[in-house]
Amino acid sequence: MTNWLNTLLVASNGRPLTPAEGERVAEYGESLPDRLAAARRLEESHKWLAKQLAEVVGPKAAEWGLPREALVNDFVQSLTAVAHAMLLDDPAVLDETVVGPFRSLATALDIPSEELGDLFHAAWAALAKRLEPRQTALLQPYFQWAATALTDGEAQCMIETPAPVEV
Q: Which residue of 89, 108, 125, 148 is 20 to 30 Å from 141, comparing CA positions?
């Protein structure tokens, strides 16, 4: 998995960092304690969040022919990848760890990936009430990124795939 920090280290190849690069690394380092606290709070909230999402996911699970508790628990566990992206300070990591697997799941279930994106909105709505302001500020963009990527990805696929024409 490549993130901005790994890319920067490879690209610099021993050269001194530019002022902008140095500032970004310094800001990242200063934010690590808050990032770790936010990731820990998200992990501590897994059981609570699973209970909150049971009502939202239950009808969807039945519609998709999946067991409700398994779907809720798997979804909540997948939020660990959101925390990892936040810890790395790189939302693009979510494309590989969350968006791709969720698009594959949507394809397997024969549903629009937007429906899975809605689960991220529901999880955030519940979780935001439980977090401190700094934790909210750190995690919210990553939940939004995942939800938006699942929604926009579906729209983009529909645009790129024209309907077959009967001759």
A: 108
Whether 121 and 147 have beta carbons less than 8 Å apart is answered as: yes
Distance CA 104, CA 156 (A): 15
pLDDT at residue 165 tops 50: no
Select from 92, 80, 20 the least CA-distant residue to 49: 80
- Asked whether 42 and 127 are in contact (CB, 8 A), the reply is yes
pLDDT in tens, 91-122: 989 999 999 999 999 999 999 999 999 999 99
* Residue 25: burial class (beta carbons within 10 Å; 0-12, 13-18, 19+): middle
Q: Which two tokens stand for residue 63?
A: 């519609």
CA distance 52 to 121: 13
**Residue 137: per-residue pLDDT:** 95
Sign of the Cα torsion 117, 89, 97, 128 reads negative
Rounded to whole angstroms, the Cα distance separating 163 from 19 reads 51
SS3 124: helix
pTM of the model: 0.81
Residue 119 token pair: 């689960």
Tens of pLDDT, residue by residue over 18-42, are 888 888 888 988 999 999 999 999 9
